Amino acid sequence: VLTPHRAVVRLALASGYTEVRPGDTVAQFASLSFDASTFEVWTALLRGARLAVRPPHVPTTAELGRFLTEAGVTHLWLTAGLFHQVAEDDVTVFAGLRHLLAGGDRLSPEHCARVLDAHPALRLTNGYGPTEATTFTTTHDLRGALGEGSVPLGAPLANTRVYVLDGGLEPVPAGVPGELYIAGAGLARSYHARAGLTAERFTADPFGAPGGRMYRSGDLVAWRPDGTLEFLGRTDG
């Protein structure tokens, strides 16, 4: 996708969802071909923090722990699968972190609880968003008792709007499944050299300013009573 500069700035400097300050160290752990690297690189550089680049091979849990300790990493992003694996292998790996973000798939409440029980001062965040909306669309901080339900997708970042719509592009009430549409400063400009797909997925936003666009995510979600989003599956399967 073609991502404009303002989408990167919105991700790196949006307030609230993460606190990266000068003196902090953000791990550059994701492949540069994965959109999570946009968060890692530009959040660190635009906020005056350090960027610690991991070795090129995929580390074991023990190697990850050494890297985090030796580099003094305070902020780390992991895919859901790797987060679950490390939580099972050795939860002490996360001891030096101040903020751990994970996502890209459903987070297990059991693994989240295991990490928070071991590190009650750690900020643990579920980060959700497609590449077409520049890494994170919504985030949800996990605290205390998680219960048995799914981990919420949370609420949108600053300068981001989300709509849960039915097949007629009408908003649905809380608790009713609908497709998630995303609008705001995080949207990509288009798919590269794929005009047809761009027209299909990026459509006019009837709820925003004239000329605005929204992205059709294909994700089935519902509003929860607390105003956060719950992921239910895909509309195509």
TrEMBL record:
InterPro entries attached to this UniProt entry: AMP-dep_synth/lig_dom (IPR000873)
GO biological processes: amino acid activation for nonribosomal peptide biosynthetic process; secondary metabolite biosynthetic process
GO cellular component, one term: cytosol
Protein origin, superkingdom: Bacteria
Keyword Phosphoprotein carried by entry: yes
GO terms assigned for molecular function: phosphopantetheine binding
Keywords assigned by UniProt, alphabetized: Phosphopantetheine, Phosphoprotein
Pfam short name (any one): AMP-binding
Ranges of residues in domain AMP-dependent synthetase/ligase: 1-192
PANTHER family membership: FATTY ACID SYNTHASE (PTHR45527:SF1), NONRIBOSOMAL PEPTIDE SYNTHETASE (PTHR45527)
Name listed for the protein in its UniProt record: Non-ribosomal peptide synthetase
Protein source organism: Streptomyces champavatii
Lineage of the organism: Bacteria, Bacillati, Actinomycetota, Actinomycetes, Kitasatosporales
